[in-house]
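ok new one. same drill as before - structure tokens go in, u give me an amino acid for every spot. 281 of them this time. try not to just spam alanines like last time pls lmao
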């Protein structure tokens, strides 16, 4: 039976939890919306969910109500008393760590695997996503990612080649995962309202292409999109061997990075991985 919980506004007022701009905080208070976000990964009964930046615990309580065991990492110690109250309301279901999520290795919070769900702090969201997407071990420790981003970032994650949003983040996400836009979230749903719209993205791992290293994909996409208006022969010339790999893959060097599909970047990544693995003479 779900315990009766006080409204989030009351929790925030009682603990004096004004959102911190420095920490990229914007609190979600709409219980129905939070329940919808918690439902995106599917049935969470008995599943472990890692949450970054729970703040006063809005999404946390929705995840707990959905039957998940939650491991929450929060660096703002002002929020810890509110989270402790939530922990007492759901005995044995919530573990809270005061820490910086960027410094945490996933095995420390998901030793047996699980899901990641978070209204990510805006100032670290993209860095965390790239960290979770580029691990050497695949399939990854996570079964799915359900993450709130600024709408502009969400658009980049799911973008297709040729679109203005297509870029490095699109490829790092899509080359070995399936990503979809789960729902838009209006700025008015947050306290305080951010200046931009947001969206929830749902990402699930798929089989990784053989012979392609995450490091190769990181290097190629960083170089290719570092100067996205330039032709590949110009943007990749500083990456030893990359132009030879372009030729091997039959990708014209006068193309721009935003016209190169995810599958073509995978072929390029395979060639570059092979080249990089050869012993240097």
């Amino acid at each position: 039976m779900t315990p009766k919980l006080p409204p989030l506004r009351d929790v925030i007022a009682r603990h004096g939890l004004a959102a911190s701009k420095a920490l990229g905080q914007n609190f979600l208070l709409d219980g129905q919306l939070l329940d919808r976000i918690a439902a995106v990964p599917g049935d969470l009964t008995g599943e472990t969910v890692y949450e970054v930046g729970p703040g006063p615990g809005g999404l946390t309580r929705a995840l707990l109500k959905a039957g998940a065991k939650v491991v929450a990492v929060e660096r703002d110690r002002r929020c810890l008393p509110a989270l402790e109250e939530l922990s007492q309301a759901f005995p044995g279901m919530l573990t809270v760590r005061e820490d910086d999520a960027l410094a945490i290795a996933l095995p420390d919070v998901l030793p047996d695997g699980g899901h990641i769900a978070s209204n990510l702090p805006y100032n670290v969201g993209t860095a965390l996503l790239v960290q979770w997407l580029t691990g050497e071990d695949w399939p990854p420790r996570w079964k799915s990612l359900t993450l709130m981003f600024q709408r502009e970032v969400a658009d980049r994650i799911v973008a297709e080649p040729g679109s203005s949003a297509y870029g490095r983040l699109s490829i790092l996400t899509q080359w070995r995962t399936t990503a979809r836009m789960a729902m838009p979230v209006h700025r008015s749903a947050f306290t305080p309202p951010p200046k931009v719209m947001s969206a929830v993205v749902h990402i699930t791992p798929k089989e990784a292409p053989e012979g392609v290293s995450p490091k190769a994909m990181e290097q190629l996409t960083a170089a290719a999109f570092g100067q996205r208006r330039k032709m590949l022969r110009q943007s990749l010339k500083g990456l030893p061997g990359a132009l030879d790999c372009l030729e091997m893959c039959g990708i014209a060097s006068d193309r721009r990075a935003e016209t190169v599909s995810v599958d073509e970047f995978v072929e390029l990544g395979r060639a570059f991985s092979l080249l990089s693995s050869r012993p240097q003479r």
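The chain has two domains: 8-205, 214-277. and btw The mean pLDDT is 93.
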